[in-house]
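Running low. Invent one:
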Amino acid sequence: MRLAVFISGGGTNLQALIEGERDHLFRSKIVLVLSSNPNAYGIKRGRNAGIPTFISKNEEKILDLCNYYKVEGIVLAGYLQIVTNTLLIPYKNKIINIHPSLLPKYGGLGMYGMKVHEKVFENKERYSGATVHMVTEEVDGGKMILQEAIDISNCKNPKEIQEKVLTVEHNIFPKGIKIWEASNETCID
């Protein structure tokens, strides 16, 4: 499958996927990186890997780029824009996301990045983790592909939770893509 990876920040999940592709953890090929943020460090990661990398928030232009690069699946890796029907319809069941919590807990509109970890910390959770899931019109409401928990009971603040959860994200994201690839081989639209 030809993949586009959408980012908005540092791109550490993008880097995990670039390395996952290199190490043959999944069969898909990353053919496009797209950032909604012109200052995202992930842009440099994409370009350093030799992947065509663009900056845009305009979904019609993004769709044109996906069509130009013959993208078959979209991976949201810290992408902070809400994906609309402009992409959801042509890529139905072809968009996945990684979320920094054990969905359905701490998901939905407004729950992203450090906001998730702050809530987890505030609620004195013993465990957190990450979830790879399908993207639908309902924010963080798509079918779960893979989830992994980690003990955070010794974390002293949300930043420590974020660091622990990020290691889980980097570990499960390539595995989630492999599972997604297998499900796409057996699905008939």
About this structure: The first strand starts at residue 2 and ends at 7. Residues 17 and 129 are 18 Å apart (CA to CA). The chain is about 40% helix and 20% strand.
